[in-house]
Amino acid sequence: MTGRVESLCRACQVEAKVDGVALSVLSSAGVPETVFVTDPRSRLVEDLQFTLGEGPCVTAARSRSPVLIEDLRAITAATRQWLAFVHEAESSGICAVFAFPVQVGAIALGTLGLYRARPGPLEPGELRAALRTVDHMASALLDLGLPGGDGVPEAAYRMEVHQAAGMVMVQTDSSIASALARLRATAFSEGVPINDLAADVVAGRRRFFKEEQ
């Protein structure tokens, strides 16, 4: 990512008064892939969403609408969808998450995630700052030649994960979607980053087998 993307994220962190900001772009499968984070905690939460395939940024990408969770501890229709994510995010010290789709018209480019270690909504000025950043970020991504959606080249993302998913698909005689879901579930249950698990699969250190019916 360029300095412009980093500058936008860090400015948003200050103006929206949040503890962390993360930018993801969409893979050809429509999955948010993290490309920049302002801090380790944001990286952890972004990786958690990728591993689980659930969370505010995933929902924002699918719905093309902002997902504003001012208190992860509150039981709502939204948080009920991501019980595993909520549990792990809270354990990491995250109390509020605000996810915004980055798009131009009908073209989906990615998501911008804002995180706080304290509960509470974005104030009007903070929300305006976040939305302003989203608009600027869309322009920045287009300038980088990332058209979003099906047009985004896979080289921009975690190729090792997708390569591993292809190998698991062959090993288990399943679909690519099922193979990726199994990788995610295994990484989460074993408490390891999905990138590390994927590296083991690609290197032949880890093999999956067809599940008994």
TrEMBL record:
It comes from Nocardioides caricicola. SMART domains: ANTAR. This is GAF and ANTAR domain-containing protein. InterPro entries: ANTAR (IPR005561), GAF (IPR003018), GAF-like_dom_sf (IPR029016). Transmembrane segments: none annotated. Residues 141-202 form the ANTAR domain. Pfam families: GAF_2.
